[in-house]
Fold this protein.
Amino acid sequence: MRITGTGSSRVMSLDLEAPSAEAAGASSLGLLVSEATVELEAVAITAGDGAAGAPPAQVEQLARAQGGMTGAVAGTVGSSLGIVSLNATLTLGDGVTVTGSGGAGGAGGMGQLGQLGGFEGDGGAAGGTVVDACDGGSGGAGGHGGNGGGGRGGHAVGIAYVGAEPAGGTVDVGGSSEGVGGPGGDNGLEPGGAGADGVVEERLEL
């Protein structure tokens, strides 16, 4: 549910339940209030679970004698948000806000292996009484690219806000859990670092 604009509204005796997100990295949001003046009475808001982040696309292999590219960091991960208040005046009466679980972080991208060394160079041509020079040696192999880091886990937040903190109400996140950070990429050498876990907060200023 969204309430936007500069007008005033009063919402009473309503149960809002947002479905869990399905698309990779998407969030579940119960109520968004932007720049409006809103009073809630006897309103229960439940957000579903945020979706896990997807691993990034792998980059193409490079040409011979180039070093490997670093793996990409995992993309956006979903969170579970009961209410998001953006520069609004929001008053909570007897409403209850409950959140679900944050989404798990996505895995980081794998770094590329270094490529083969370059071909040997041709020897120089003879000049005068000097014989042809020997061919140059092959180039060294390119270095291995580092693995990308895992994505951060999603958050489970009762009320997230920008501007004035919403007053009143009861926020319950006791049954919520943060999303676990995703593992780093692993190309069989040194794995990338895992992403940080998300947070569980009753109220969180953005």
User: Anything to note?
Assistant: The chain has a mean pLDDT of 79.
